[in-house]
Design goal:
alpha+beta; binds flavin mononucleotide
């Protein structure tokens, strides 16, 4: 079983670390003339136009990101409008901006480099307004392209080793990653970005599904080659990353697996030339599940890691009360969100705001690899200007809802350095670092645990983005110097690996002339 040959994940992780030297010695450059198209287009398939007048759920964003729809909600069947709402608020175009070389179409969720390498497919049975089929979502014109006619939910369920949420779902969304669309800029580090960018998108998707009263879960237990074959993917260029079963159908409605021959459908090339990065193909292969038995084993829930003892002074989280929390709806917040480009270094946030963000974002993701409420990533932070919290470095005790002071001090310069020498983390009010005990995670989950930990960080980071914007604050994902982050938080973080970084603060208001 390749998934158990753990040197593969270490090789990829260590080989794609950023350091002061690696960033300076990189020979990779941006070939603007060969910039990839941000959409996958099937020119010759039948399409269904998705409704654009999307009824809003009216559910408060802070509730939508943190509350689950119980699976007992039987007969939760999305119709075309609800499906369109989920797709649009996960991956739809929410803003556009001209730049000298063309136009950037910004999407609902944050994405490294605004390159939007994650594609969405839907495997659905008969729904109100949608025939059973395999569809591809095209956000460029808000349409679904019909790739296969018929009900393929039985196929998906079989290759997900009869995962009950997939078996019971009227529709399952499959998220894929297209290597070149992101690797054009980020080279072999794109495999990490797959987790981050798919994760932020999932934060939106789970929130909108929850707000629509539809249960949804992240499923990583599936036979990779079989899902890729069903989607007819060229796996050197695009691979399935996760399944998200949506809703709950009556048990009797699952059909037997159907014939799904190769399609070889025409698609428009992303670029004139594409480069391949073997490190990523190797990492993907080594973290693939090869059989239904392996997929079933993946699902066996692991015990959550015991919380560490606390050695330092602890500050209790003080989230805003229900009455104090803004009621801005999840749709309003997604439309308002955008990564802050300049933080105001003179601004501050309150401990109540920071507490609300941490509390709401870390109540546990619905995922097939997590026991209820467990989390793979550990959360550390640097507070620069948080009213009620002394400046310094902290560890977040999730179970106790406290922040343990690791070292007190003003660390703006250090934060700027850790965040790849950018100004954003130095000017933010707080920087949230996601670190993980990769050794333990890989031993328990195999190489696929690497996918899970990156994806989880992206999804929790995505929830933090939404919580920050619900509170009318700003946020931005960031990249970092891996080993320097660990050094900064050590000895507490000894032996851990840096996974993700998010800065939270207030946008600098431009002065009117
Ligand atoms: C995981 C992650 C890492 C990011 N890293 C950086 C970064 O290092 N520097 C930066 O300026 N922006 C960074 N961004 C912000 C993206 O550039 C931004 O999400 C993208 O341009 C889309 O714009 P939007 O978030 O405003 O919709 C990051 C975003 C994510 C999700």
């Amino acid at each position: 079983m390749k998934n158990r040959e753990l040197q593969a994940a270490w090789k990829y992780h260590d080989g794609t670390k950023h350091s002061y030297r690696s960033v300076r010695s990189s020979t990779h450059y941006l070939d603007w003339a060969n910039r990839p198209q941000p959409f996958k287009i099937y020119p010759a398939v039948e399409t269904i136009a998705l409704p654009r007048d999307l009824l809003q759920t009216g559910v408060a964003a802070l509730a939508a990101i943190s509350e689950r729809v119980p699976l007992t909600n039987v007969n939760a069947l999305p119709d075309l409008r609800e499906l369109a709402r989920i797709l649009f608020f996960s991956a739809g175009i929410t803003r556009q901006r001209k730049y000298p070389g063309g136009e950037i179409y910004f999407r609902a969720a944050a994405c490294t480099g605004a390159l939007y390498e994650i594609e969405l497919y839907v495997v659905t049975g008969e729904l109100k307004g949608v025939d059973a089929g395999l569809y591809h979502f095209n956000p460029a014109d808000m349409s679904l392209g019909l790739l296969r006619k018929g009900d393929f939910r039985g196929n998906l369920t079989q290759v997900a080793a009869m995962e009950p949420t997939v078996a019971g779902a009227p529709a399952t969304i499959v998220c894929t990653g297209t290597y070149w669309r992101n690797a054009w800029k980020y080279a072999a580090r794109t495999y990490r970005h797959f987790g981050w960018d798919n994760g932020t998108l999932l934060a939106n998707m789970l929130a909108i599904a929850a707000a629509s009263g539809l249960p949804a879960e992240i499923v990583l237990g599936f036979v990779d080659a079989e899902v890729n074959r069903l989607l007819d993917l060229d796996t050197r260029r695009e691979v399935a990353l996760c399944l998200v079963p949506i809703g709950r159908a009556p048990e009797s409605s699952l059909p037997a697996p159907a014939e799904a021959p190769a399609l070889r459908l025409e698609t428009i090339p992303f670029s004139k030339r594409e480069m391949e990065f073997p490190a990523m193909l190797e990492m993907h292969d080594a973290s693939s599940l090869a059989s239904e038995e392996e997929a079933a084993q993946w699902r066996e829930k692991r015990a959550a890691a015991p919380p560490p003892a606390s050695a330092g002074e602890e500050v209790r989280l003080q989230p805003l009360s229900q009455e104090e929390q803004p009621a801005d709806t999840i749709e309003q917040v997604i439309l308002r969100r955008g990564s802050t480009r300049t933080f105001d270094p003179a601004a501050s946030i309150t401990l109540a705001q920071l507490s609300t963000i941490l509390d709401r974002a870390t109540r546990g993701l619905p995922a097939d690899f997590l026991v209820d409420g467990a989390q793979l990533n550990d959360i550390y932070l640097i507070a620069h200007s948080v009213h009620g919290l002394a400046p310094g470095a902290y560890y977040f005790h999730r179970a106790r809802k406290t922040l343990e002071l690791l070292k007190q001090g003003k660390f703006r310069a250090e934060a700027g350095r850790l965040g790849l020498e950018q100004q954003l983390p130095a000017d933010a009010c707080a920087d949230v670092f996601f670190l993980a005990d990769l050794k333990r995670i890989l031993e328990e989950y195999g190489n696929r645990g690497y996918r899970a930990v990156q994806l989880e960080a992206g999804a929790i980071g995505g929830r933090m983005y939404l919580a920050a914007y619900a509170l009318h604050l700003g946020a931005s994902g960031l990249t970092f110097f891996d080993d320097e982050v660990i050094d900064f938080f050590s000895p507490h973080a000894d032996g851990k690996s840096a996974i993700f970084l998010l800065a939270i603060g207030k946008a600098l208001k431009r002065k009117a002339h």
